[in-house]
Amino acid sequence: MSGLKAAAASLALVLTVSAASAETELDKTLSSGGKQLTSGQLAELLIGHIVTARSGDKTFRFFYDPDNVITGELTNGGWKGSGAFAITDTDQVCISMAADMGRYRCLTVVRHGDVIRKFDASGKMTFELLGFEPSTGL
Predict the structure, then answer these.
(1) For residues 127 and 116, what is the distance between their CA atoms, to the nearest angstrom?
(2) Residue with more model confidence, 63 or 21
(3) pTM, whole model, 2 decimals?
(4) Rounded to an integer, what distance in angstroms lies between the CA atom of residue 126 and that of residue 6?
(5) What backbone torsions phi and psi does residue 44 show, to the nearest 5 degrees?
(6) DSSP string covering 98-138
(7) What is the pLDDT of residues 65-112, one digit of tens each?
(8) Which of 27, 72, 75, 105 is deepest in the core (most CB within 10 A)?
């Protein structure tokens, strides 16, 4: 009987460690004081602005047109694209570039201090937003 209790305790410990290690980048950011932006804050920050964003070692510029069209470019060349975006009632920005063939990817945007980051549906950080400038296009 004591062997069964020890096995159950070991299993509980493994499950606890697994659950803790399953914490996403989004979870960690929110639990350390990050605040998810609201749909109103997203609209104010993005619409009518060129947003400079970094993903890994690449820097992009995206323009969020008031007509829900998004255009983007890699700052050192090599990529340009366009698509559509929407800001949801559930405080996310959803983007569908032409290459997505109509599939929208919805992102959660979180401010942690002076840093603003986008996270995908799995909680992985996709972009750090570096700057916002009012504009009428790229």
Answers:
(1) 9
(2) 63
(3) 0.81
(4) 42
(5) -65, -40
(6) GGGTT--EEEEEEEETTEEEEE-TTS-EEEEEEEEEE-S--
(7) 999 999 999 999 999 999 999 999 999 999 999 888 889 999 999 999
(8) 72
The overall average pLDDT reported for the chain is 89
Measured CA to CA, the distance from residue 109 to residue 103 in angstroms comes to 19
Cα distance between residue 6 and residue 24, in whole Å: 30
Spatial separation of the C-alpha atoms in residues 65 and 97, rounded to whole Å: 14
Tokens of 130: 């570096």
CB 47 within 8 A of CB 62: no
- Joined together, the tokens standing for residue 25 give 């980048």
Q: By the 8 A CB rule, do 93 and 77 touch?
A: no
Residue given tokens 């305790």 in the structure block: 9
Tokens of 11: 């299993």
pLDDT band, residue 3 (cuts 50/70/90) = low
- Distance (Å) of CA 72 to CA 3, 25, 32, 59, 97: 61, 25, 31, 11, 9
